[in-house]
């Protein structure tokens, strides 16, 4: 079933303890749509770039089944640019620079041909644009998922809360969940978020996996202990892309299937961090995904019994 992805397509400059890039292709919607494309569902990408963005990369996305007709290219403008530096633990980072550039011209308007999308992924973006995108969809989507970040919680919290009340799933990291609710306990934070509207909340904990909350239930997915984490940029977006790409392809939005989706999200995030930018996602195929899924599932297989007295 069709999946609409709204978010940034951008250039990033990244510094990790292992290296530095001055300019690599990034953007939340780039990672989301690439990760989702492995699940073969039709993807409609809505974003905006300047005339500095390589057409060859848009062609690459198109060749992977991502409809890039909704990516506006604005002549005489520069693409969105973000720069970040990771701390040694690789779970935390500082934003060094955010240049909105062409993003100031983005309206979040969804082209008519995409307005019948059944699944909607609102990538990290100004919540007013997320709202506009969601409201442009002609009928209530089967599932709408949103992501956000500390910046929007700092400068546009009421709008974040307005979107939150209208989506089915919030995908957020642990620090953001604490910032949104003022609660340290992630269980309490999740309960408060569920009371704000969504039926599900996924809290991502970087190298410690992810938690899916629904009513009084919680599902815990591990992260794969990887020997080398090279660049965590986009991991959260790849998680979201794998999660919703799998759900859109299967057409099943039950809690049981959302648990499987969390596993696919984790698998896609684990590939993303192995190289700079989206590079690793461009190398893998569905066999790699299958193999890694097996590795993840074997991490969760266990039997235990109280020894007899
Ligand atoms: P993640 O590591 O999953 O949080 O996503 C990183 C991506 O988000 C980068 O490729 C950035 O280009 C993009 N990004 C960073 N800041 C923003 C922002 N304020 N709005 C939209 N996208 C952003």
Overall pLDDT confidence: 96
The major beta sheet can be summarized as: 9 strands, mixed
Taking all Cα atoms into account, the compactness measure Rg is 18 Å
Helical residue percent band: 25-40%
Shape: globular
Oligomeric state of the chains present here: single chain
Number of strands: 13
Instruction: Name the hetero compounds present.
Output: adenosine monophosphate
Q: How are strands sequenced across the largest beta sheet?
A: 5-4-1-8-9-10-11-12-13
What are the salient characteristics of this protein?
alpha/beta; 9-stranded mixed β-sheet; binds adenosine monophosphate; 13 strands; 309 residues; 4-stranded mixed β-sheet; globular; 10 helices
Notes on the structure:
The chain is an alpha/beta fold and 309 residues long. Helices cover 36% and strands 26% of the residues. It is built from 10 helices and 13 strands. The strands form 2 sheets. It has a 9-stranded mixed sheet with strand order 5-4-1-8-9-10-11-12-13, with helices on both faces. It has a 4-stranded mixed sheet with strand order 3-2-6-7. Helix 3 packs parallel to helix 5, helix 6 crosses helix 7 and helix 8 crosses helix 9. The termini are far apart. The structure holds adenosine monophosphate (AMP). The site of adenosine monophosphate has 16 residues, from strand 2 and helix 8. The site of adenosine monophosphate (AMP) has 16 residues, from strand 2 and helix 8.
């Amino acid at each position: 079933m069709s999946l609409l992805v709204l978010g940034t397509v951008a250039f990033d400059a990244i510094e990790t303890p292992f290296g530095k890039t001055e300019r690599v292709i990034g953007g939340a919607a780039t990672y989301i749509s690439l990760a989702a494309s492995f699940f073969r569902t039709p993807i409609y990408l809505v974003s905006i770039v300047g005339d500095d963005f390589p057409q060859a990369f848009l062609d690459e996305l198109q060749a992977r089944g991502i409809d890039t007709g909704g990516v506006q290219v604005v002549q005489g403008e520069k693409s969105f640019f973000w720069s970040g530096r990771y701390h040694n633990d690789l779970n935390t980072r500082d934003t060094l620079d955010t240049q909105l550039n062409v993003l100031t011209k983005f309206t979040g308007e969804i082209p008519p041909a995409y307005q019948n999308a059944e699944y909607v992924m609102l990538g990290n973006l100004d919540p007013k644009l997320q709202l506009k995108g969601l409201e442009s969809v002609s009928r209530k989507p089967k599932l709408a998922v949103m992501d956000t970040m500390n910046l929007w919680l700092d400068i546009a919290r009421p709008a974040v809360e307005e979107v939150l009340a209208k989506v089915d799933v919030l995908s957020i990291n642990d620090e953001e969940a604490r910032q949104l609710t003022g609660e340290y306990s992630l269980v309490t934070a999740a309960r408060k978020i569920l009371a704000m509207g969504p039926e599900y909340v996924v809290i991502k904990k970087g190298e410690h996996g992810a938690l899916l909350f629904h009513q009084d239930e919680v599902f815990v997915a591990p992260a794969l202990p990887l020997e080398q984490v090279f660049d965590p940029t986009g991991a959260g977006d790849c998680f979201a892309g794998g999660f919703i790409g799998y759900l859109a392809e299967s057409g099943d939005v039950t809690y049981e299937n959302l648990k499987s989706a969390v596993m696919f999200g984790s698998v896609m995030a684990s590939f993303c961090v192995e190289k700079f930018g989206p590079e690793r996602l461009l190398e893998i195929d569905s066999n790699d995904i299958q193999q890694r899924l097996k590795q993840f599932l074997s991490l969760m297989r266990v039997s235990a019994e109280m020894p007899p007295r």
